[in-house]
Amino acid sequence: MSEVGKSEAAAWLKFGELKLVEKYLSNPTGQPTFGWLANHYINHGLPFNKRNGHRKAKGTIYCYKHVLEDFLLPRWRNEVAAKIKLLAIRDWLFSLHDEDDYDWQTVSKTKMVMGQVFDHADVHDLETCRNPVGKVSVPGSEDDDREVRILQPEETWQIISRLQDPEKTLVLLIAATGLRISEALALQWKHVRFEADCIRVEHAFRLSEITTTKTKASKASVPMCESLAEFLQNWRKNSPYHRDGDFVFASDKLNGKKLRTGQMVNRCYLKPAAIAAKVIQPDERFGFHSLRHSLSTWVNNATKDVKVA
Fold first, then answer.
1. Alpha-carbon distance 68 to 66, whole Å?
2. pLDDT bracket for residue 253 (50, 70, 90)
3. Please, which residues bridge with residue 80 across strands?
4. Residue 295 burial class via C-beta count within 10 angstroms: exposed 0-12, middle 13-18, buried 19 and up
């Protein structure tokens, strides 16, 4: 074989090793998507520790894959990696906490795994883009988050009084029960048991899908006070979607078949009402998590019993 032939053969071998065909197919522009980088990381980087090259524990591998498959890939799979903006990552991470109600430890771990994917891409020369995750800062725990706004009961009512149904009943439901916004949006009328004065939590609505609840303990019944029951009964009478199988807070624009996201409800209704009530400033971070956090804080102060809270 001539020298030219050998060089060409070596080039094709390298082409195959780098899986450039798959890279091109994942994005014809030639710029790999985050999903392509993540898949390469799962197969070639995830099993090994970055520092010493030893294999990770099975539990660690399982945990990282869970973060990738359940959080990162549904949001970023088709995004061109080099075009992902720092602020977009930051806003998404904060929405996981404020709207989807994941604790800061989970958010911090998600950020870390995303950074691992970009670092892996750099080490293996898969992409020359910078790692945008390193400059994103999130609290490491609830104790580190000093921006969580604790509402007094009267402040919560000032917000509720500025809303119309169904948002009014939705906010009251979360404020009075401590449900996560994802759990509240997934409720169907059959889950609201007026005769038993309780609400049965069966599912959650995350990443545009009906899924299982965040934890096994979350799949349970929560008490429904008389005032909340009256609001829910009144909303059911006025809602066009009032059958047992209908969603309690179905989207009218989407003909009741789909649900609005927690981020949209917060952005368009909850936060504007809180600003109008002068409970928060326009530049403050605020979401449904503040209602849950305020309820648990108030109960803890009233009962002095952490278990009850």
1. 5
2. confident
3. 33
4. buried
Q: What backbone torsions phi and psi does residue 229 show, to the nearest 5 degrees? A: -60, -40
Largest distance between two CA atoms of the chain: 88
* Average pLDDT estimate for 290-305: 76
One domain for residues 216 and 248: yes
Number of domains into which the chain is organized: 2
For strand 209-211 and strand 204-206, is the pairing parallel, antiparallel, or unpaired? antiparallel
Helix (H, G, I), strand (E, B) or coil at 7: helix
pLDDT digits (tens, 9 = 90+) for 110-163: 999 999 999 998 888 887 777 889 889 888 766 666 666 788 888 999 999 999
Return the structure tokens found at 207.
Answer: 């990443």
Cα-based distances in Å from 51 to 45, 62, 184: 12, 19, 43
Q: Is residue 14 part of a domain?
A: no
In which element (H, E) is residue 199 found?
strand 198-200
List phi, psi (to 5°) of 82.
Answer: -70, -15
Q: Are 243 and 256 in contact (CB under 8 A)?
A: no
Q: Mean pLDDT over residues 293-303, rounded?
A: 76
